[in-house]
Amino acid sequence: AQTVTQSQPEMSVQEAETVTLSCTYDTSESDYYLFWYKQPPSRQMILVIRQEAYKQQNATENRFSVNFQKAAKSFSLKISDSQLGDAAMYFCAYRSGDDKIIFGKGTRLHILP
Amino acid sequence: SQTIHQWPATLVQPVGSPLSLECTVEGTSNPNLYWYRQAAGRGLQLLFYSVGIGQISSEVPQNLSASRPQDRQFILSSKKLLLSDSGFYLCAWLTGANVLTFGAGSRLTVL
Question: Band of the pLDDT at B96, cuts 50, 70, 90?
Fold first, then answer.
């Protein structure tokens, strides 16, 4: 069975600095999708970024980028120029070939002014 | 436009009572539908997912069940709630653009 592990329960970063959130996963599949979701205090889940496993190029969305290492089964999220509005829970997620989508336990990100 | 509705938003139920949470999606057909539970301060646990009517995969064998009576309706049920069923329940659907879109959630407190 697939698993998603986020080893950092909490992280803090100074405003305007860069932070990297870690995610590793375990799978025997070769074709899958990976996601990062953000959950602010409102608890609404917001897609941050997604990556198809067959694509070697790392996905980027404005200040958000990923470092996808397929062989290492690692999918970290880098947030550049951190802003106060980035404070939230961040979840890494994995979509398998049968469309099951599982999440890690999350990393709570604090932005220090 | 495509939207997802989930209700009720808040529910307080006694132990042993039944549960029904409903989720509907508008503006699409044959969506993949998902139910997740989030305990306080924790991650999202996948409970059930459905890739079509009559096709429901269960990830937890406990006292919860799911049904999909219509193409765009997904219902989470329990015959007898436990204290451990308290949490934040999220319904979601997978768009054609490969985006998991969530409802606003249902907060369940079992007393």
Answer: confident
